[in-house]
Amino acid sequence: MLYTERVIKSVIERNPNQPEFHQAAKEVLESIAPIVNNDPKYEKHGILERLVEPDRQIMFKVTWVDDNGNVQVNKGYRVQFNNAIGPYKGGLRLHPSVNLSIMKFLGFEQIFKNSLTTLPIGGAKGGSDFDPKGKSDNEIFKFCVSFMTELYKYIGADVDVPAGDIGVGAREVGYFYGAYKRFTGLYEGVLTGKGLSYGGSLARKEATGYGLIYFVTEMLKDAGTDWNGKTVAISGAGNVAIYAAEKAMQMGAKVVTMSDSTGWIYDKDGVDLKAVKEIKEVKRARLSEYKNYRPNAEYHTEGNVWEAKVDIALPCATQNEVNLEDAKKLVANGVIAVGEGANMPSYPDAIEYFQKNGVMFAPAKAANAGGVATSALEMSQNSQRLSWSFEEVDAKLHGIMVNIYKQASSAAEKCGVKGNLVVGANVAGFLKVADAMIAQGPML
Ligand code: NDP
Ligand code: 2IT
User: Fold this and answer.
1) Which range marks the domain in which residue 341 is found?
2) What does the mean pLDDT of the chain come to?
3) Residues 179, 222 within the same domain
4) Domain count of the chain?
5) Atom number, ligand 2, closest to the C-alpha of residue 374
6) Which of 168, 208, 368, 404 to probe ligand 2 with, by most ligand atoms within 8 A of CB?
7) Does residue 13 belong to any structural domain of this protein?
8) Which pLDDT belongs to residue 444?
9) Confidence check: pLDDT of 50 > 90
10) What is the pLDDT of residues 153-164, one digit of tens each?
11) Does residue 391 fall inside a structural domain?
12) Which amino acid residue places its CA nearest to atom 10 of ligand 2?
């Protein structure tokens, strides 16, 4: 059995009941198989066995008292996967579905994504099964402080730098940061996605969504086309979805769908983003309210956004939200490109179906790397004790996304699978990390 096949088998055997982690590991290992199986140095250094085992998995109890005086208990996690090329870096997710499998798939993906950014950041992820929905501001604060009573021991500006993800935006990062500062007495860049008044970076809020559009722009350009006049389906209505929609519109596209966990909107005239921002960012309400702003739009609780006839699809909500059936619908409706804003939003058979049907496919770890890349720019600004203008950060983000596209497409070409950015991104991300691991010896 080939080296990569043996490691895939052992990942499945040694990590039972972690389907998301298996899925992420399998995709990376299958992509890099031609390279790794043809050069004995990787096996000699045990690179794959070391890569698929996190350096450390911290699991802890988070207790807090709700507004009714009841004690609540949640599970807290931080998976520090790999720090070969820089301090651990990756978001914190607050969602009831969070479990170790999801933390590990996200932390594993983050290693290669962060490598692709060309910036010095390792891979990690954390979070909790806490459900922020319907919680008061006071409850969110109490949860965040309690979470940090444990997490602060394991992080630091040069150790591990968390940020936002699902359920964690500027408000939560602020509470985490205040608690960290109180517990340690340190005023340092230990988190990114901070508010602008205390060390945050301009353009970090927009970065993942804008970066996704910059990446897809390069992919479209290679095919001789652009966003102008294209119809776009976006899932999600959170941080990534909103700013992907904003930039796509600036590029001349018409976004016709968005969704949240209770339903989805179809607005044939183009989504009113101001309304979506008010509903989701200000009121923290449900997308069903969209009809109050645009009575002619459709709101559905059945089916999903992939039913809409569009040219470009951008899944920006969560993992495994595009299955084979969805892929078939999109292809039948003439989709030309798919860009993943969320992490691992497409099932493997859906990706295969897109690729077999000539749909351009921008994989998450390349296409959504703009968020973490701008987090790394926030770290740079914090270290310098300076802050850069919006234009400066946005220009750097743009350059990084163009560079990631070049890395992924040229790696794909070198591997003999021109245009396969899944393989290209995995190979390009892997090579740098493996090189750094070999150079530093078999310590971790
Ligand atoms: P947000 O919490 O801001 O938004 C998430 C959106 O997706 C919400 O509209 C939410 O609906 C919806 N959603 C979340 N989970 C589900 C679910 N299980 N089923 C249906 N809808 C769901 O998160 P982000 O926008 O930050 O993150 C979205 C995706 O992008 C995630 O996969 C994340 O890992 C990824 N990502 C985020 C980055 C960032 O910088 N924030 C960077 C790179 C990737 P509702 O409002 O009802 O909760
Ligand atoms: O998935 C991701 O890349 C993020 N949630 C952003 C992580 C970060 O450290 O900015």
Assistant:
1) 205-362
2) 98
3) no
4) 2
5) 10
6) 208
7) yes
8) 83
9) yes
10) 999 999 999 999
11) no
12) 372
